[in-house]
Design brief:
Length: 241
């Protein structure tokens, strides 16, 4: 695993967006695994700028998102479907047919998980972008998720619901479940790119940087990936010895 420590969120976003830009320049039909949350917003803004400057195009890019809340219709402003369109897809020339986001609308969630998992088996993700939860989760794979887990429906921990409350009017409105790629799906990507900023990520980043591999901190599985790059700001790196 390659760990890069930078000054702040802005620098983290720049470094990470340059890695994705390089990939899209070399491979304009690349397949990207994408994430939501606060961590990737800055890097998505940079990708939009590169697109506007004519440096990259998304015309032939395929995308697969990590996760989606259950119980929220896609049209809800806080669905990850809405998030991705608001923060990236609506601003670039991506072909909507190439966009894949888990669909958790419907009563048969098991069938929807299988459908997304089958799509992931057929896809070959060149680069999977990841954020990290304060408890070390990746996607919505909370502590002690088995490393061989594939796409599934997860009951969110209270910690994760509280962390995400900032996007909703109240804690009651935060969904209790989400559909997520499993750790096994994430590990299939050719390259993993994790970004983290802020002091609340410092303990999870300390564990990841220590080299341990422990399901208690799911992100530590990155230590087993042949090509994982982790870009963190000084606050997120503040507990690394
Ligand atoms: C989002 C996702 C989550 C977030 C993580 C960090 O698609 O899978 O694992 O990456 O919760 O969220 P932020 O970036 O908001 O701190």
């Amino acid at each position: 695993m390659k760990l890069i420590v930078v000054k702040d969120y802005e620098e983290m976003s720049r470094e990470a967006s340059l890695i994705i830009k390089d990939l899209l320049v070399k491979k304009p039909d690349a397949t990207l695994g994408l994430a939501t949350g606060s961590s990737p917003i800055g890097l998505y803004q940079n990708l939009i700028k590169y697109y506007e400057n004519g440096e990259i195009s998304f015309k032939n890019v395929k995308t697969y998102n990590l996760d989606e809340y259950c119980e929220l219709p896609r049209s809800h402003p806080e669905s990850y479907y809405s998030f991705m369109h608001r923060n990236l897809f609506s601003h670039v020339d991506i072909n909507e047919e190439n966009v894949h986001i888990p669909c958790s609308e419907g009563s048969d969630l098991e069938a929807l998980c299988k459908e997304y998992n089958d799509l992931l088996h057929k896809a070959s993700i060149d680069l999977q972008l990841l954020g990290i939860g304060a408890n070390g989760h990746i996607g919505f794979n909370e502590p002690n998720t088995p490393f061989d887990q594939e796409t599934w429906v997860v009951k969110l921990t209270e910690k994760t619901r509280k962390d995400n409350q900032r996007f909703f009017k109240s804690l009651d409105e935060v969904p209790t479940h989400a559909m997520t790629m499993g750790i096994a799906n994430i590990m299939q990507a050719k390259k993993l790119l994790l970004v983290a900023s802020g002091k609340n990520k410092a303990e999870a980043i300390r564990r990841l940087a220590s080299g341990e591999v422990n399901p208690e901190c799911p992100a530590t599985i990155l230590n087993r990936h042949p090509d994982a790059v982790v870009i963190v700001d000084e606050d997120a790196a503040s507990l690394i010895k």
